[in-house]
From TrEMBL:
Residue ranges of domain S-adenosylmethionine-dependent methyltransferase in the record: 172-392
Name used for this protein in its record: Class I SAM-dependent rRNA methyltransferase
Domain RlmI-like PUA: start-end pairs: 6-72
GO terms classed as biological process: methylation
Protein family according to the UniProt entry: Belongs to the methyltransferase superfamily. RlmI family.
Taxonomic path: Bacteria, Pseudomonadati, Pseudomonadota, Gammaproteobacteria, Chromatiales
InterPro entries named among the record's database cross-references: PUA-like_sf, PUA_sf, RlmI-like_PUA, SAM-dep_methyl-trfase, SAM-dependent_MTases_sf
Amino acid sequence: MKIQPLILRKDQERRLLAGHCWTYSNEVDTQATPLKSLEPGQPVEILSSHQRWIGHGYVNPHSLISARIVSRDPNHPLSPALWLQRIHDALTLRERLYPHPYYRLVFGESDGLPGLIVDRYGDLLCVQITTAGMERARGEILAALEQVVRPKAIVLRNDTSVRTLEGLEQKVEVVLGSPEDTVTLIEHEQEFVISPLSGQKTGWFFDQSENRARLARYGVGKRVLDVCSYIGAWGVRAAALGAEQVTCVDSSESALQRVAENAERNGLADRVARIQGDAFEVLRELRDQGQRFDTVLLDPPAFIKRRKDEKDGTQAYQRLNRLGIEMLEPGGLLVTSSCSFHMGRDTFLRTVQQAGRRAGRSLQLLEAGQQGPDHPVHPAIQETAYLKTLFLRALPAF
């Protein structure tokens, strides 16, 4: 079967030749390739205006990102063999990195599988398909995962809003086995119970694992505040490192209930307290009560999801960090994160620095972290480098 060509406008191939894999709709020569005649997810061969072959990919005429390159080898189009090879390569990396089978197994473009996310919880795989191209190949992808990983259960967590941009419905499906919505994972020798069918994302945030490991180097002191704690990954880790009193703050009652379960599971229940409420409101109340902490952990959801959110999102990061810094003891540790791709590392550091000045403190940057190696960064696709985690020491102003 002949593969449909997708022809670009003049000089629109440079970014692709440099390694990026996205083609935007305004980069396509719609006279030579009428986008409206193509089906969402249809395989295409991407060509320059001079007919230079660039890659095999798939198209979605209804999306701003109209095509994604999957293979740059003319002899390897989208096929079951290609999916098998890519998933095998992804598994090889993770098995080299991790002693336990708990990690992000596939990270989209960085693993040569744009539109596919797979998190592994032992014998359970949580799969997220975010593009029409991967949805079209869904059966082949699932078959490849079964063949390479041999899981006992697979859950499709296709309840992400990103799918609406591709014209796809949102739902959660069990496609293999009969998994329960309670799974135990191991991270840094602590055990955590998660909810892979109903939790945030796929139930856990593997991207911060390496940064949570770094806490041991700095010491957390006696009192720790964990803001936007979700189910306690940071807070329980801090208690395990010797904190005598950890306060976890989250807006979700069910997440905080899981914090209690995870603290109990690790023999740390007497050290971990919970406060339900809006992060900003709770922080202001704690500050006004005169509460002080040796370590403050800030791991909020993305405040900047779109470029137009940049101004308001930057102000939100500054307010959150100022409140956190104001409650730190002199010499205390601030661990603060942003998962907003649209806020670069330098901008985030500058925003936290401004928060420190407004709080009357001087900050020392001790270390800057990113997502772990199971979320590898594609050097040509800056969008894959989204997580920033800063370790800072807060001192009186100087």
